[in-house]
Specification:
This protein is of the alpha/beta class. The chain has helices spanning about 25, 55-65, 65-70, 75, 95-105, 120-135, 225-250, 265-275, 285-290, 295-305; strands at about 5-15, 20, 45, 80-85, 110-115, 140-145, 170-180, 185-190, 200-205, 220, 260, 285, 315-325, 330-335. The strands form four sheets. Strands 1-7-6-4-5 form a five-stranded mixed beta sheet, with helices on both faces. A five-stranded mixed beta sheet has the order 8-14-13-11-12, sandwiched between helices. Strands 2-3 form a two-stranded antiparallel sheet.
């Protein structure tokens, strides 16, 4: 299908809110936490926080600016498909797709909000976009990602004292996908591990359902046992989907020109790079500048690599991530077509 109707990721642009917040900020609030020394929660040097009144729609609008500057507003307003993922929806009963479409001046035939993709939502968005465009449902798709939980959930007064809160950062991204062979998506692998779907939980003290009023602030329910399982799953799943894609496109993982992943912590980054036998210069990350960006990690890192000249036209870029406690993972390979503003055409 994709060979007859090639689909390309031709560009992307990103947005990081506010000034960088240093690790000292969280150190000033830290209390005794039995998980403080766990490898999952070794803090990055900096991260960004969404503003107090800044919405996911605001973030996506600001992330789209680079794509609009390079390609013109029409490429967004006339897109046929809008695929979105918001870590913390501004409203609980519906996703942000409709509001994002309106703010960006779009009237797309398809608006799809993805929740299950988690940290791998950009890869899942590429799969959905490629499937729809290849099937004749349009010529252009926009993928919009907003990670906005760091400055809202993890910076709550009682939650920012916990070790888990020093790791997340906020950011947003917009990817432009077109029916063309300019920067072709070579292959995508998405896998659902539904047996792990209940292993990520939101907890409050005293306990209640997330939507019920109460005195305790919400956070992620981490335990040593859960962390051990998540580490094992992530260490396995990301290489598995990466190797699967590489096998189908006929490239050895160690020969990939650029590896781009989500970035939960430094341990995962090192383990994934070693599993693919890649040197550090071919695995891009922004962990110490941005922290764990969840779903925004892949597009923010790829955008940074393109801007910094770390990827050139013709290079094969492999994107891979796993989500939540390991209930979803995905990988996608693109033969990058270049971008004029970084001299890579």
């Amino acid at each position: 299908m994709s060979e007859n109707n090639p689909v390309s990721l031709i560009d992307l642009s990103t947005y990081l809110p506010g000034d960088p917040i240093s690790a000292d900020y969280y150190a000033g609030f830290a209390e005794t936490d039995e998980l403080a020394e766990n490898v999952m929660f070794r803090a990055p040097r900096f991260r960004h926080h969404v503003g107090p009144e800044e919405t996911a729609i605001d973030m996506v609008e600001r992330a789209a600016a680079g794509v609009i500057e390079r390609h013109g507003a029409d490429v967004i307003t006339e897109a046929d498909v809008l695929i979105t993922h918001t870590q913390l929806p501004d409203m609980p009963f519906y996703g942000g797709g409709g509001g994002m479409a309106h703010r960006l001046g779009m009237k797309p035939n398809w608006v799809i909000d993805l929740h299950n993709g988690g940290c791998a939502a950009f890869v899942l968005g590429l799969k959905v976009a490629r499937t729809l465009l290849s099937a004749g449902e349009g010529r252009t798709a926009v993928i919009a990602i907003a990670q906005n939980s760091a400055g809202q959930v993890f910076d709550q007064q009682t939650i920012r004292r916990k070790a888990q809160s020093a790791v997340p950062g906020d950011g947003a991204a917009v990817g432009l996908v077109t029916l063309s062979d300019e920067s072709p998506i070579l292959d995508i692998e998405c896998r659902t591990y539904g047996e792990y779907a209940g292993d990520m939980t939101v907890v409050m003290d005293p306990p209640r359902k997330w939507w019920q009023a109460g005195p305790g602030e919400a956070c992620i329910g981490f335990t040593e046992s859960k962390i051990t399982k998540v580490l094992a799953r992530g260490n396995r799943q990301v290489p598995e989907v990466s190797y699967s894609v590489c096998d189908r496109i006929g490239v050895q993982p160690k020969d990939i020109d650029l590896f781009v992943t989500n970035q939960p912590n430094r341990v995962f980054l090192r383990n994934w790079r070693e599993a693919l036998e890649l040197p550090s210069e071919r695995h891009v990350d922004t962990f110490d500048e941005c922290g764990n960006l969840f779903a925004a990690g892949i597009p923010v890192n790829l955008d940074r690599a393109v801007t910094d000249g770390r990827v050139k036209a013709g290079d094969i870029v492999l994107m891979a991530a796993f989500a939540h406690a390991g209930d979803f993972a995905g990988a996608a390979a693109v033969r990058w077509g270049g971008r004029g503003d970084s001299g890579n055409v």
